[in-house]
Design a protein that fits this description.
alpha/beta
Length: 451
């Protein structure tokens, strides 16, 4: 679809937004949200006719791209047939969505509890773990993001937690593996894995294993850096949890449904959690949907014991219809396989080539359509291009880089001192190469701040 410029309409949209919309994670008087007129495939555009290649997949959720016709048609058809029904009824489209998801989750995660998004999925997974074990504590990593609701934000490791951290939420944090910025003085992935597991084991010992309900990890850490765990780490966590009767929760809200080139990132590592949270890519956010995939053992806990949790819109028919259409389209069009291939043959090699040319690129990491460039002032010292949680003038180098991307028609995902390369799983080879070329030019803005 070709964008049609209508600047006056754009100004009206912006004016109404500024008058009435309260935006998340923002100082309201310091933002100027872009007025978006439309989207299709890997692009969206504004009312001035500017077209952007979406290297952010919005919030890393439009895995199937914008306006996929099969998903749009499924929502329309479902709306004409049954718009909504309470969660307590059995509905064909809800059951089919659950079946399709359960078929793709690892192991015996065959029961699906639907939520409206990822944060609620985490909330309910933690509740299930605590009720199943009768224990209060949950362990989570410092480099993590699990959502913005009450328990999820306390489990989150990044600075967005700070204003809401109660200090009494039953959460204990630990360091996960990250060789580039190792907390364990490791030189190899094998050392990092061994020492990170020993650190977790010691944390559990000092907290008291009998007090710990769950360990929650993002299978591949998302917003905090696209951190792919070293071989053996997740299986090591699984073994530790089994030994102490601790529920192992994998958060696949961002990594699931093709993002890493597999249906779930856990498939890369041969690990089966007790609970798995999902959202985002399950239907590319066309209608809000998330959920928890539950093991047979934990599901059995609630065979006679009522589960004390629920949502008015759990398993909403429009959301479930969009999930069914998304999963079927991903299967029919081999979108998961395409994500793996584009990562292996285009994004991975292309990003590594950028690292060779740009002194600001300290590390390239990722898989599928899930990548990050760690930007640094000095490759030798690995000093980040901007300080941790920088804002204002301190964040200028990253702001300049982001502006350079947007000026060239690419919408980046920027967090801290990193740019994440997370386009839709459907991105074409030509589009991926176009985006890499823009990054090549925009990184000059970051290079200007290197030693």
């Amino acid at each position: 679809m070709t964008p049609h410029a209508d600047p006056q309409a754009g100004k009206a949209v912006q004016a109404a937004d500024r008058a009435h919309v309260f935006h998340s994670w923002s100082a309201q008087g310091l933002i100027e949200p872009l007025a978006v007129a439309g989207a299709e495939g890997s692009h969206f555009w504004d009312y001035d006719g500017n077209r952007y290649l979406d290297f952010s997949s919005q919030l890393v959720n439009t895995n199937i791209g914008h306006q996929h016709p099969k998903v749009v048609a499924a929502i329309q058809e479902q709306a004409a047939r049954l718009c909504t029904i309470a969660p307590g009824f059995a509905v064909d489209v809800r059951s089919e969505a659950a079946r399709l998801i359960a078929e793709r989750t690892p192991g015996d995660l065959d029961k699906i509890f639907f939520t409206n998004g990822g944060a609620e999925a985490v909330e309910n997974a933690v509740r299930m773990a605590r009720l199943h074990t009768g224990r209060p504590k949950v362990l989570s990593a410092y480099r993590s993001y699990h959502g913005a609701t009450a328990a999820a934000i306390n489990l989150t490791g990044d600075p967005r937690r700070w204003p809401s951290d109660t200090g009494a939420a039953g959460v204990v944090r630990f360091w996960g593996p990250h060789l580039y910025r190792s907390h364990f003085h490791a030189d190899t992935e094998a050392q990092e894995c061994e020492r990170a597991l020993a650190h977790l084991e010691e944390t559990i010992a000092f907290e008291g294993p009998q007090t710990i309900a769950a360990v929650i990890l993002e299978t591949v850490v998302g917003t905090a850096g696209v951190l792919v765990p070293p071989p053996g780490y997740l299986s090591g966590v699984r073994e530790i949890c089994d030994r102490h009767g601790i529920v192992f929760v994998l958060d696949e809200v961002m990594a699931g449904f093709g993002r890493t080139g597999r249906w779930f990132a856990a498939d890369h590592f041969g690990v089966v959690p007790d609970l798995l949270t999902f959202a985002k890519g399950v239907n590319s956010g066309y209608v809000p949907l998330g959920g928890v995939a539950i093991s047979a053992e934990i599901a059995a806990t609630f065979d006679r014991l009522p589960y004390p949790g629920g949502l008015t819109y759990s398993g909403h028919p429009l959301a479930c219809a969009s999930a069914v259409a998304t999963i079927n389209a991903m299967e029919e069009e081999r979108i998961v396989e395409h994500a793996a291939q584009i990562g292996e043959t285009v994004l991975g090699p292309g990003l590594r080539a950028l690292a060779e040319r740009h002194p600001s690129v300290g590390e390239v990491r990722g898989m599928g359509v899930f990548w990050a460039l760690e930007l640094v002032k000095d490759r030798t010292t690995r000093e980040p291009l901007v300080p941790y949680n920088a804002s204002g003038a301190a964040n200028a180098p990253m702001a300049e880089f982001a502006a350079a991307c947007k000026q060239r028609g690419l919408w980046p995902f920027v967090n801290m001192n990193r740019t994440h390369v997370v386009p839709p799983c459907t991105i074409s080879e030509a589009e991926a190469k176009e985006g890499l070329a823009v990054l090549d030019e925009a990184l000059a803005a970051a290079d200007a701040h290197t030693a």
